[in-house]
Specification:
The protein has 166 residues and is mainly α. It is built from seven helices and no strands.
Length: 166
């Protein structure tokens, strides 16, 4: 039974990954359709990591900045639902912790598009803080960056530069 459940969960992540490939390949409409179908299948009680990941990418398929913000907020809400649990209690909480810098960075960009610089600054600060926590593993000592970490940090720095003087 447990193996069947794990295989089912892997299938959901595979389907999310397939839609992400469509998105990155330029087929936003088909990606949006597949994400929407998956979202309705998962429902409000679906796996938190699936909902977080799905909403995080669904935001990137939106044409309207307000819709993009709504999906990014759904992703953050799903992440917060998982991060309140201790890692031993939920296998995906560490994976979600790694997403926090990107989740807050996306929200900062959304608020900037919506001409809400104060809200953008709050989330940009939270993105930087989350990235710093990942870097040092909570120990206060610098750690190595992965390609993902470095890319997110570079994006944080670009948005900070863009917002200077606003």
């Amino acid at each position: 039974m447990v193996e069947q459940q794990e295989a089912s969960e892997d299938a959901v992540m595979t389907r999310i990954g397939q839609a992400v490939m469509l998105l990155h390949g330029g087929d936003r409409e088909e990606a949006r359709n597949r994400f929407g179908l998956l979202w309705s299948e998962l429902g409000a009680d679906g796996d938190g990591l699936h909902r977080c990941t799905l909403a995080h990418y669904m935001a990137d398929t939106q044409d309207d900045p307000g819709d993009e913000l709504a999906w990014d907020l759904r992703a953050l809400t799903a992440a917060e639902g998982l991060s309140g649990e201790r890692p031993a209690e939920h296998r995906d909480s560490l994976a979600v912790q790694a997403l926090y810098p990107s989740l807050h960075l996306n929200l900062a960009a959304d608020y900037l598009k919506l001409q809400r610089p104060d809200a953008a600054r709050i989330h940009l600060r939270q993105a930087r803080d989350a990235a710093d926590r990942l870097e040092d593993g909570g120990s206060g000592a610098p750690g190595p960056y992965s390609g993902y970490d470095g890319g997110v940090r570079a994006a944080i720095e670009r948005l900070e530069e863009r917002m200077r003087g606003m």
